[in-house]
């Protein structure tokens, strides 16, 4: 087993590897085709392979696979001695308007995970009808009660994150993380100030969809587009437009003893100071994504990738 150097999650005492594993696909039939393209055994193998590579940080949510993702994690946690950091999320559904809703949701998540407390609990979206302030205060109470080790948010703008940080700070609780969409094909966090605000406030930016749902692996082309929901999201014309960037990822990877486009794309996220959580449906993908660690792109390579992504 190799052990990547760990880093601190925000200003907490929680240590995580520089890359985690996203588990949205674990049990999700609608978007990711669980049960047809990959099975429960593939997921178990992905977990074991990730942990063997020292990837001990897993991101889930109550909504992933309608709870199946959390249940997979319970099963897998029972089979390892290795300390694992688990992040899950509260989904502010429109009918969840009372403070008790987050407590109840957490209780169900903990039950599915088989845990007494969770390392990181994130508010999934800054959605109405309740204000972000309302849910952040409620989250702070869960931290004070010891049910949650660290407080996080997701899909929050820089401004919403500043407010969440300030609210928690009055109770002496750090805002540990903001999980947002960030990849070479989605650089909004760089442009809207979220990445800068994270760095300024000591908040970890957790980058979701860092492979742009598989596109940055280079395996999808106009001739071989992804199926299912992704076929509506990413047109053939878009796949054509990203070809030069994929070519550059491949070329740069060759200069780093044959790193794959996916590994280079994940390393780019790490070089930007964020923690990518690529999804892995099987052991091969988990091992491959762990190969983004233990080396680093040069500043010139990061710049060249920035330039290529700017042209898309
Ligand atoms: N907070 C939020 O609102 C939010 C939203 C989205 C995601 N997330 C989190 O972020 C995680 C990752 O995002 P994501 O799953 O949307 O996208 P992603 O990590 O960019 O892409 C994951 C997909 O790419 C393919 N893949 C991954 N590694 C590969 C490899 N080494 N070689 C070839 N193919 C590979 C797999 O799908 P195929 O094999 O089918 O191509 C996999 O399911 C999620 O699991 C979830 O935990 C959070």
Give an overview in words.
Helix 5 (about 160-170) links the parallel strand 7 (about 150-155) and strand 8. The protein has a domain at about 5-215 and about 270-280: NADP-dependent oxidoreductase domain (TIM Barrel). It has helices at about 40-50, 70-75, 100-115, 130-145, 160-170, 190, 195-200, 230-235, 235-240, 245-255, 260-270, 285-290, 300-310, and strands spanning about 5-10, 15, 20, 55-60, 85-90, 120-125, 150-155, 175-180, 205-210, 275. Strands 3-4-5-6-7-8-9-10 form an 8-stranded parallel beta sheet, with helices on one face. Strands 1-2 form a two-stranded antiparallel sheet. The model has no long low-confidence stretch (mean pLDDT about 95). The chain has 13 helices and 10 strands. Helix 10 (about 245-255) runs antiparallel to helix 13 (about 300-310). By secondary structure, the chain is of the alpha/beta class. Helix content is about 40%, strand content about 15%.
What is the count of helical runs?
A: 13
In terms of per-residue confidence, which ranges show pLDDT below 50 for 5 or more consecutive residues?
none
Which overall shape is indicated by the principal axes computed on the Cα atoms? globular
CATH top level of the domain at 7-214 and 272-280 is: Alpha Beta
Structural class: alpha/beta
Q: Trace the largest sheet across and list its strands.
A: 3-4-5-6-7-8-9-10
Instruction: Tell me about the largest β-sheet.
Output: 8 strands, parallel
**What percent of residues adopt helix (DSSP H or I)?**
40-55%
List how many beta strands DSSP finds.
10
Give the name of the CATH superfamily of the domain at 7-214 and 272-280. Answer: NADP-dependent oxidoreductase domain
The CATH level-2 architecture of the domain at 7-214 and 272-280 is identified as Alpha-Beta Barrel
Bound molecules: NADP nicotinamide-adenine-dinucleotide phosphate
């Amino acid at each position: 087993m190799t052990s990547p150097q760990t880093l601190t999650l925000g200003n907490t005492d929680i240590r995580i590897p520089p890359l985690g594993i996203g588990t949205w696909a674990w049990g999700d039939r609608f978007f990711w085709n669980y049960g047809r393209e990959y099975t429960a055994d593939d997921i178990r193998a992905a977990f074991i392979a990730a942990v063997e590579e020292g990837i001990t940080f897993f991101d889930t949510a109550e909504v992933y696979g309608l709870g199946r993702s959390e249940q997979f994690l319970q099963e897998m946690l029972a089979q390892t001695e290795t300390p694992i950091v688990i992040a899950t999320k509260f989904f502010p559904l429109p009918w969840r308007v009372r403070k008790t809703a987050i407590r109840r949701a957490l209780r169900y998540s903990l039950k599915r995970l088989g845990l007494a407390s969770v390392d990181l609990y994130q508010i999934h979206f800054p959605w109405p009808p309740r204000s972000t302030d309302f849910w952040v205060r409620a989250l702070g109470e869960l931290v004070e009660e010891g049910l949650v080790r660290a407080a996080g948010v997701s899909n929050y703008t820089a401004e919403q994150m500043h407010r969440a940080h300030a609210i928690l700070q009055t109770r002496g609780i750090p805002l540990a993380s903001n999980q947002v969409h960030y990849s070479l094909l989605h650089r909004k966090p760089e442009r809207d100030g979220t990445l800068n605000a994270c760095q300024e406030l000591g908040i970890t930016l957790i980058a979701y969809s860092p492979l742009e749902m598989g596109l940055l692996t280079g395996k999808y082309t106009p001739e071989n587009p992804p199926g299912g929901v992704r076929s509506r999201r990413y047109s053939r014309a878009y796949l054509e437009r990203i070809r030069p960037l994929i070519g550059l990822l491949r070329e740069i990877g060759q200069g780093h003893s044959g790193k794959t486009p996916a590994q280079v794309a994940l390393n780019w996220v790490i070089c930007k100071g964020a923690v990518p959580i690529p999804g892995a449906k099987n052991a091969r993908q988990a091992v491959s994504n762990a190969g983004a660690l233990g080396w680093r792109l040069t500043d010139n390579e990061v710049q060249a990738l920035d330039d290529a992504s700017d042209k898309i």
